[in-house]
Design a protein that fits this description.
Layout: H1 10-16, H2 20-23, H3 25-29, E1 32-36, E2 48-53, H4 58-70, E3 75-78, E4 84-86, E5 91-97, E6 104-107, E7 110-114, H5 119-128, E8 131-132, H6 144-150, E9 153-154, E10 157-158, H7 159-162, E11 163-172, E12 175-182, E13 209-216, E14 218-219, H8 222-238, E15 246-249, H9 261-267, E16 274-275, E17 278-280, E18 287-290, H10 296-314, E19 323-325
Parallel strand pairs: 2-5, 3-5, 4-19
Antiparallel strand pairs: 1-2, 6-7, 7-13, 8-14, 9-10, 11-12, 11-13, 15-18, 16-17, 17-18
Bound molecules: flavin-adenine dinucleotide.
Length: about 325
Amino acid sequence: MGYTAGIMNNVRKLWEKCNIAREFPRLAERVRFDEPMTLHTTFRVGGPADFYVEPDSVEELTALLSFFHEESVPVWITGGGSNLVISDHGLRGACVSLAAFRSISLQDTLVSAGAGLPVDELVSWCAERGLSGLEQFAGLPGTVGGAVYMNARCYDRSVSDVFFRAEVLVFHEGRYTVEVVDRKEEEWGYKKSPFQDCGPKPDRGTPPVVLSAVFSVVPADTETILAVMDRCVRDREQKGHFRYPSAGSMFKNNRAFGKSSGQIIDEAGLRGFTVGGAQVAPWHGNLIINRGNASAEDIRRLVEQVRTAVYEKTGFLLETEVVFAGEWQRAEKDENL
Ligand SMILES: Cc1cc2nc3c(=O)[nH]c(=O)nc-3n(C[C@H](O)[C@H](O)[C@H](O)COP(=O)(O)OP(=O)(O)OC[C@H]3O[C@@H](n4cnc5c(N)ncnc54)[C@H](O)[C@@H]3O)c2cc1C
């Protein structure tokens, strides 16, 4: 039986007649239906996910994804929800968060972290042990899995600069298996990782799920590491990153147009430009904020209007970095803008 988009309680019915709840009773207790995604995104917008769960073992995750695959239920993987705009209509199918995968360990100069570990915790853990390499990521919202998937970049350091390998759950020859993915230079780029895909593809399983990642670090003086972390966090605070709910930079900033996206938006006179409760931050062109009552649709419309205005003025087509997910009324649903 296939999953029918638009029938919101379909996934609940499928879940009620499957065996996973009996096999994994602790997992079953954590399942939520119609879970508001405002609770799981830093933008604090988004309608409900039909089904939401945070598995805490590879066995639970594999059982869930296999079941959803058999039933053709689309699956969205999330971490900290800090780079996501979920539509006001919510997510049809299942939203599986890796937030409970929080292991951390060290072998020689390789630190291994579970996908759900907040990046900030990983950075502090390394600093306490005098391990350098990740301190520029201090204050970055979100999880290790999300940072690897997005190839997050902070203060001239990308995740790919320190990434060594990852354990990934992949759908291969009809089943989910854990694979080790080593770093290959050519698979990484600016905000690009080999794990990226554009959302669920029920016919061939979910995209690869990062379970854990290993980073190369080097011994260094703890005070020096802490000083870098402090500088990064203070700079974020000064730039107003945490003043209002947001998802950080809205547009990619690869300077392909010779200047930052923020500067291009500033020069187009769009600072403070508002649609409903969404606003281009009055102090930073590339930060779109939720003034308190924004809907996902406000954010989407604001993004489109900024892109159009910039294109008409400069000929530059800004590309969103933030991932737009869920059901949108427009044709280009479930894709990055
Ligand atoms: C105030 C603020 C400042 C920010 N500053 C920066 C910055 O300086 N630099 C920067 O690069 N980003 C920045 N961001 C954006 C964001 O924090 C990063 O992109 C972060 O790495 C996303 O991690 P997450 O766990 O929240 O991912 P989510 O938002 O949960 O997910 C993002 C994408 O990753 C996928 N994903 C998440 N976890 C996994 C997994 N385990 N396996 C496979 N796919 C997965 C999701 O499907 C989704 O497509 C900022 C955001 C905010 C709110």
